[in-house]
Amino acid sequence: MKSTFTGIDSVPAAPEVAVVVDVLRAFTVAACAFRGGAERIVFASTREEALELKARHPGWPAFQDGAPLPGFDLANSPARLRSLDVRGRTIVQKTTAGTAGALAASGAGLLLCASFAVAGATAELLRGVAPDEVTFVVTGDGGRAEEDRACAEYIAARVGRAAAGPEPYLDRARRSDAAARLAEGVRRGFAGVHPEDVALCLEADTASFAMVAARTDGHLVLRPAGRPAG
C-alpha cells in the first residue's frame, strides 16, 4: 500500500481511499460520540448550515470548534461531551479542519475519518480493503499539523505491521503546536477548552470501529464502520 500525505488544499479530486485525520479535536469528539451511542454525524460546510440543520431537526445537537457560540451544543471538546446524552442521536458537526477536510475529500471511493482513538480499527479496515494507494489528509495547520501527520503515519504503520506501537507517534502529538495551543487555552481560561481534552485526544486505539463517511440525502454523513446507512 502506497501512502500519500497531503493537506486539505491539495486533496486529489477522486482518490481511491482517503483517510482524513483530525486529532485535536474533531474526530476524537466523533469517536467519543459514537462510543456514547450516537447514531451518525452530519457534516456541515458552514456554521449557518449547521444551525439550519439543527432548526429543521430539533433533536439534533450541533457541535462547532472555537469558543462556544449561541445555538451550538458543544464547542468540540471530548471532555465536555461527557455531559451530553447522545445515545441514538444524529449530530451536526462543523469545524475548520476535520469536517472541512472530509468535505474536500468527499470524492474518494472510500472515505474514512480518523484520530488516534480509531487508528487501530482504521488500519484493520484498510488491511481488509487492501487498496493500492491511500491518501492521508492532514487537516490541521494547512497540512503541517504534527499531531495529524503522526496519527496518519501510525495508521500507515499499523497497516503494514499490526503490532506497531503508538507511543512514538503519540509523543510527537504531545509536543505539537496544537497541543501547546490547547494547553495555553486552558491556562488562560478560554471557554470551550477542557483541561482533559489533550489527554483524551492522545489515547490510542480506544474504539473498536473505524469511521466511514458517505453521501446520504445530499449530506456527507459519518458512521461507525458496519452501521448501515439510513
The helix content, as a percent range, equals 25-40%
CATH topology (level 3) name = putative 2-phosphosulfolactate phosphatase
At the fourth level of CATH, the homologous superfamily is ComB-like
- Low confidence ranges: none
Shape: globular
Number of helices: 9
The radius of gyration over CA amounts to: 16 Å
Element pattern in H and E:
EEHEHEHEHEHEHHHHEE
Q: Structural class given helices, strands, pairing?
A: alpha/beta
* Physical arrangement of strands within the biggest beta sheet: 1-7-2-6-8-9-3-5-4
Q: Give the biggest sheet.
A: 9 strands, mixed
N-end to C-end Cα span: 31 Å
CATH class: Alpha Beta
- Tally the structural domains: 1
The tally of strands reads: 9
% residues in beta strands: 15-25%
Q: Return the CATH architecture.
A: Alpha-Beta Complex
Residue-averaged pLDDT? 96
Task: Indicate the topology.
Layout: E1 2-6, E2 17-21, H1 26-35, E3 40-43, H2 47-56, E4 62-64, H3 78-81, E5 90-94, H4 98-104, E6 110-114, H5 119-129, E7 133-138, H6 146-160, H7 167-174, H8 177-187, H9 197-201, E8 211-216, E9 219-224
Helix pairs in contact: 5-6, 6-7
Describe what you observe in this structure.
With 230 residues, this protein is of the alpha/beta class. The chain has one domain: ComB-like (putative 2-phosphosulfolactate phosphatase). It is 35% helix and 20% strand. The chain contains nine helices and nine strands. The chain has helices spanning 26-35, 47-56, 78-81, 98-104, 119-129, 146-160, 167-174, 177-187, 197-201; strands at 2-6, 17-21, 40-43, 62-64, 90-94, 110-114, 133-138, 211-216, 219-224. It has a nine-stranded mixed sheet with strand order 1-7-2-6-8-9-3-5-4, with helices on both faces. Helix 3 links the parallel strand 4 and strand 5. The chain is globular, with a radius of gyration of 16 Å. The mean pLDDT is 96.
